[in-house]
Write a structure and sequence with these properties.
By secondary structure, the chain is an alpha+beta fold. Helix content is about 50%, strand content about 25%. The protein starts with 9 loop residues before the first strand and ends in a 6-residue tail after the last helix. It has a 7-stranded antiparallel β-sheet, sandwiched between helices. Strands 14-13-12-18-17-16-15 form a 7-stranded antiparallel β-sheet. It has a 4-stranded antiparallel β-sheet with strand order 1-2-3-4. It is built from 15 helices and 21 strands. It is globular, with a radius of gyration of 28 Å. The protein folds into 4 domains: about 10-165, PH-domain like (Roll); about 190-260; about 265-355 and about 410-490, no CATH class; about 360-405. The longest helix is centred in the middle third of the chain and has 27 residues, at about 235-260.
Length: about 500
């Protein structure tokens, strides 16, 4: 029973004012950091202490006023089976969400919140307002109470689950826990090429911003670097590649450690709870009924360590899809088997035949990724012998890559669920129950029709699953069955 009357407007913890103040500073620095850097490097401004003091004092007063007004005008309450949040002082906002539309209620805690001993609470929904339903500073006990109240009210609002409310609570069971050694293996098995490209893009953005401020100096230093690399030969290239690889691996390790430190996947009744984070701690609750599909993936390095990356796909809007992904960075085969059994029942799809995409799918991929780019480049480089060598290598490489895609492109289906396989270097699976499907699309191009082939798109509340280039008759049978299933099924998809 709630000790707090949530029918009355309630504010955040008073400590939230300090959090709002720090967030204001961070936003100012993020937006105006090039200007601030230029002012700090300006000797005339630095020598004039009065300007520095007055500017700092003015910013401080404005931020204090903003923090106070934002805090006083931010409150929330429950009314008529709705959660209502009001915020803003110049531009006021009122956000209202029915309790039965709440996907999950999660808590997070960054480093500054840990110092203040408060947590943020996020309410996820299938609508576009979900990302705005966030309370930044609540005492831990009150946040836990509010989380429990919202989950309880949501359950009561769902008529299908009313009978389950009287069942005795099961004890918590830790399904998956990752040790530092596990995180080390996961970090080593990450995609380091992708990580390296992120570092390069981020570094280029920093360089561009600095170059805009100090154009002459930036050009001078960049020319010196280019001249040095040109005169150093292959040695500097080898050093640069080695540095790139080491930086990518270290970045992957640190990212994995900070994001997934002390990772736990805990089961209780009909929900999972995920806890993780070193600096930014998060606690995410996933209801079984809200999971639309389960994705899992492995790759060459992950396969060596026997690791799979899991993603629970929930019903979300396009605006919040990326931020709503709930994942487990690594689990073993036994953990994956346990989760699949818990979500989908005993393994039955393994006994169904694999249905592969037609070989014409390979030809389509090879033409689009290999031949067309090479042919388009011919008018520009046809006189260069090196181009023809590179084009031949490119066409052969794209053929190999397309072949790998074809070998992993298959699905298994029965009258209850479907599992789709895809990938090239890595291998990814997607599985869902058929009653979660909201719509089915039958697609057939002119080229497919000539070869009696077709593709299917299965859409649920979490996204789309594609089955490309299968036999036309089979595609129509599956399409008709899934469409009938979606229209007649009375089971709730949420």
């Amino acid at each position: 029973m709630s000790k707090t009357d949530l029918s009355k407007p309630t504010r955040q913890s008073i400590k939230g004012m300090a959090l709002i103040f720090v967030q204001g500073i961070r936003k100012l620095v993020k937006i105006f950091w090039p200007l601030l850097l230029a002012l700090l490097l300006n000797e005339k401004i630095r020598e004039n202490e009065m300007i520095m003091i007055l500017s700092g004092l003015a910013i401080f007063v404005l931020l204090v006023a903003h923090s106070t007004l934002y805090y006083l005008n931010f409150y929330f309450y429950l009314k008529n089976d709705e959660f209502i949040l009001k915020k803003g002082y110049l531009r006021k906002k009122i956000l209202s969400i029915p309790l039965d539309r709440i996907q999950s209620v999660n808590t997070k805690q960054n480093l500054f919140q840990q110092l203040l001993n408060v947590v943020s609470l996020e309410i996820d929904t299938a609508g576009s307002v979900g990302k705005e339903l966030k309370i930044h500073a609540l005492d831990k006990l009150f946040a836990l109470e509010l989380q429990n109240v919202l989950q309880l009210q949501k359950t009561k609002a769902n008529a299908e689950q009313e009978e389950k409310a009287d069942l005795p609570e099961e004890p918590e069971k830790v399904i998956l826990k990752l040790s530092p050694a596990d995180l080390l293996r996961i970090g080593i098995s990450e995609n380091h090429l992708r990580t390296g490209l992120i570092i390069l893009v981020f570094g280029n953005q920093i360089y561009q911003n600095i170059a805009d401020l100090f154009k002459n100096k930036a050009e001078e230093y960049s020319n010196e670097v280019v001249d040095y690399m040109a005169n150093s030969g292959w040695t500097i290239v080898a050093v640069f590649i080695l540095f790139f690889l080491v930086a990518s691996v270290l970045f992957s390790l640190f990212r994995t450690l900070f994001k997934y430190f002390d990772f736990k996947l805990i089961k209780k009744n009909e929900t999972y709870r995920i806890e993780s984070g070193l600096v930014n701690k998060r606690k995410v609750i996933i209801s079984h009924s809200k999971v639309q599909q389960l994705d899992w993936e492995t790759g060459p390095l992950k396969k060596i360590f026997g690791i799979y990356h899991l993603v629970f796909k929930q019903a979300v809007s396009k605006q919040t899809k990326k931020s709503q992904l709930v994942d487990a960075p690594g689990c073993l085969t036994k953990h994956l088997k346990l989760l699949k059994t818990d979500l989908f029942g005993e393994e039955v799809l393994a006994y169904e035949p694999k249905v592969f995409s037609n070989n014409f799918y390979f030809r389509r991929l090879w033409i689009l990724s290999g031949w067309i780019p090479a042919i388009v480049a011919v008018p520009f480089f046809y006189a260069n012998w090196f181009f023809w060598v590179a084009a031949a290598v490119w066409i052969l490489a794209s053929a190999g890559y397309s072949f790998l895609i074809l070998k992993k492109r298959y699905f298994r289906i029965n009258n209850e669920q479907i599992r789709v396989s895809q990938g090239a270097i890595s291998h990814k699976w997607k599985q869902m129950k058929l009653f979660k499907i909201q719509s089915v699309e039958f697609k057939q191009s002119v080229f497919q029709k000539r070869r009696t082939l077709a593709s299917l798109k299965l859409m649920n509340a979490a996204g789309t699953i594609t089955i490309p280039y299968i036999d036309e008759l089979m595609a129509k049978q599956i399409y008709n069955y899934l469409l009938y299933h979606a229209e007649t099924s009375e089971r709730r998809w949420m």
